[in-house]
Amino acid sequence: MTQIVGRVPRGHVVRAEGKTKIIWVRIRKRKKRGLAQNKPFVTAGDGKHREFVPGKEIAVTETTCNIFRLLNRSGIPTHYHKKINADTYLISLLDMIPIEIVVRRKAFGSYLKRNSHEAEGTTFAQPLVEFFYKNDTMSDPMMIWQPEHQCFRLYHPHEPPEERGAIGDLKAGLDPLIPRNEAEIERLEVIAIEAFLVLEEAFKHVGITLVDFKIECGYDQDRRLYIGDQIDGDSCRLWMGGDKSKAVDKDRYRNIVKQGRVPTPEERALIIGDYQRIATMASSFGLMGL
Ligand code: 5GP
């Protein structure tokens, strides 16, 4: 379903294509690095809903480049090298771990569906980490480690685990990229929490509460761990002044879709405005000496 909207980088072919991004590699030459190019689409519900939002690709590229620069400067390894042009940046190619790692400071989103006793917006003293297995047919189930079996058990992401029980098992050793023991799990948790704390502090400087985020990690050829994928307004919940009604993230689009609608022209303007606002804030991270 290749759907190239931006410029095709000269001498490159598609290595992978997602709903909002294309990864390119050189036709010849070493294949340790590639280009990540953003697309001008906002999507929801595993790509079932999609809007063409011109300019989004530029805003999220600016955001993610500044976020990755900040993490690199803070000693947290990421796949980012440098921005190439308005919608494209240079990355190290990684073997991606098929896990969405979510870190939460507040109880919100799918957490509330699994923990209905918890009040919305409760602040966790320590950031909470959760793992979701990237698997569209199973709707990205939650992964819970079973120490006695040394493997993960899978649970529906929107129901309390005890309600339906396990919906599957990730057999140990089936995928070498999935953590195989507590030490490998801890490495992922540590890198995710460190990144969250750096970004939480940076967004605090511009008056924004980082409610939660999702990252993805991968290994290079020497099995060194890096943060990969992208961190932007699609993968973070960001509330101005800690106020849910002043969210500047993708929840605006998700909420419209939940009502069974497509955005009005006014709402489209607000959606692109949010992405641009986050990009402007992220561009100030370098100036703040962070
Ligand atoms: P939740 O599990 O509450 O739906 O989402 C937690 C956090 O992870 C939110 O910041 C949300 O934006 C992010 N997130 C969850 N699933 C995805 C996904 O499929 N793609 C992206 N980009 N972010 C996600």
Report a brief summary of the structure.
With 290 residues, this protein is an alpha+beta fold. 27% of the residues lie in helices and 31% in strands. The protein has helices at 56-73, 110-114, 161-164, 182-205, 251-258, 265-283; strands at residues 12-17, 21-26, 33-38, 41-44, 49-52, 80-85, 88-92, 95-96, 99-106, 123-133, 142-146, 151-155, 168-170, 208-215, 217-219, 225-227, 236-240.
CATH topology value of the domain at 96-249: D-amino Acid Aminotransferase, Chain A, domain 1
> Which sequence of SSEs, written as H and E, runs from N to C?
EEEEEHEEEEHEEEHEHEEEEHH
Q: Class of the domain at 96-249 in CATH? A: Alpha Beta
Strand content: 25-35%
Biggest sheet record: 7 strands, antiparallel
User: What's the gyration radius in Å?
Assistant: 19 Å
Instruction: Assign the structural class, choosing from mainly alpha, mainly beta, alpha/beta, alpha+beta, or little secondary structure.
Output: alpha+beta
Task: Give the fraction of residues assigned to helices.
Answer: 25-40%
Globular, elongated, flat, extended or rod-shaped: what is the shape? globular
**Number of DSSP E strands:** 17
Bound molecules: guanosine-5'-monophosphate
Can you identify the CATH superfamily of the domain at 96-249?
A: ATP-grasp fold, B domain
Pfam families: SAICAR_synt (PF01259)
Protein name: phosphoribosylaminoimidazolesuccinocarboxamide synthase
GO molecular function: ATP binding; phosphoribosylaminoimidazolesuccinocarboxamide synthase activity
InterPro entries: SAICAR_synt/ADE2_N, SAICAR_synthetase
